[in-house]
């Protein structure tokens, strides 16, 4: 079994790896994630930031300070959202599940801000 999660942006300009284990995967329904992803939620795997390496295209990674403590990383060419990190927890990084190759095989264990789930999202 691979010791890393791997992925890339839509245009392929950025390739990354993130060392396992993931502490959890989550869907975040906060309005910032919804706007960043253009979707109902941002979906992430939470890992140690020390194990996150941009293997290709580091110059294409752009970060946006979306709050006083949060930074969102994305590709400046294609706009793919790659990660979210908190300056309050610099030892952790949340990598977007949709950019992983192969797809993330773990379970999504947490939902953040479920009260913000859009009405158009299917209910269980």
Structure in words:
The protein has 124 residues and is mainly β. It has a single domain, classed as Metal Binding Protein, Guanine Nucleotide Exchange Factor, Chain A (Beta Complex). It contains one helix and ten strands, in the order E-E-E-H-E-E-E-E-E-E-E. The strands form two sheets. It has a seven-stranded mixed β-sheet. A three-stranded antiparallel β-sheet has the order 1-2-5, with no helix packed on it. The longest helix is centred in the N-terminal third of the chain and has 7 residues, at 31-37. It is globular, with a radius of gyration of 14 Å. The N and C termini lie far apart (33 Å).
SSE layout and pairing:
Layout: E1 4-8, E2 15-19, E3 24-28, H1 31-37, E4 42-48, E5 52-56, E6 61-65, E7 70-75, E8 81-86, E9 92-96, E10 110-112
Parallel strand pairs: 3-10
Antiparallel strand pairs: 1-2, 2-5, 3-4, 4-9, 6-7, 7-8, 8-9
């Amino acid at each position: 079994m691979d010791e890393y999660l791997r992925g890339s942006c839509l245009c392929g300009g950025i390739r990354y790896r993130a060392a396992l284990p993931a502490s959890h995967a989550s869907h975040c329904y906060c309005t910032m994630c919804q706007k960043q992803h253009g979707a109902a939620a941002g979906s992430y795997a939470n890992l140690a930031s020390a194990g996150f390496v941009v293997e290709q295209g580091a110059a294409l990674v752009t970060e946006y300070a979306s709050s006083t403590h949060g930074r969102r990383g994305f590709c400046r060419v294609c706009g793919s959202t790659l990660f979210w990190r908190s300056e309050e927890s610099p030892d952790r990084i949340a990598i977007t599940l949709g950019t992983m190759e192969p797809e993330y095989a773990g379970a999504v264990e947490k939902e953040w801000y479920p009260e913000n789930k859009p009405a158009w999202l299917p209910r269980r």
